[in-house]
Amino acid sequence: MEPAESPEKIMKSVRRSDVLEDVGNMSAVDLSSGDLSDIDLKDVPAQLEATLKPRRYEASTVFNIDLDDIWDPSCQQDEVQQYKERAQKEQQKFFDFVMHVALDTDNRKVSFQPNKEQQRHLDQGPNLQNFVRSSLAFTNAAIRFQAEHEDMMELQCNLDDHYLFMRNTMINNAIHQNMASQR
To answer: What is the pTM of this model?
Structure first.
């Protein structure tokens, strides 16, 4: 059963932001000691539904679009024309920028010298030549370790092969002895 709506009470649509502003402006006294007797409980669900119901401009989906709005030729043509004008303006601005940069490179002097702060940092920083010289000992040790590691890996592989050969030889000898003794 739906509540009977009287024609003299017309629902007024209320924006959520307006309601929040009103609530923010209310004092604690207004909230605590307000007179609730003037609220008609029959109208509360209808008012709540009206405030929560999305409006056309707030939510738009495929299901609530009118065909008249889609096929309205004047609106689409205006939007397309405005888009074309904006695109042409942006294209012209880009072309002007590129031409300005290309022509301005002849007038600009390019400096590859560091500024004072950068030069001070370079002067106070570590010396690259000393770093390379001190790293030579480490590099030589690393190269020697790699060579020795390769030799050790080769020796280990040879040991594994020799172990397998010796084991297989022992197994074969045991099998031959057992076969010879059975006859």
So the answer is: 0.29
Q: How many domains does the chain have?
A: 2
52-59's contacts with Cβ under 8 Å and 24+ in sequence apart are 55/13
What is the domain extent for residue 39?
16-65
pLDDT by residue for the chain (183 residues), tens only, comes to 445 545 444 444 555 555 555 555 555 545 455 566 667 777 777 777 777 766 655 555 666 666 666 666 666 788 889 999 999 999 999 999 988 888 877 677 767 788 888 888 888 877 777 777 788 888 899 999 999 999 999 999 999 999 999 999 999 999 999 998 876
| Total residues belonging to the chain | 183
11 found inside a domain? no
- Within a domain: residue 145? yes
Measure the CA–CA gap between 15 and 4, rounded to whole angstroms: 24
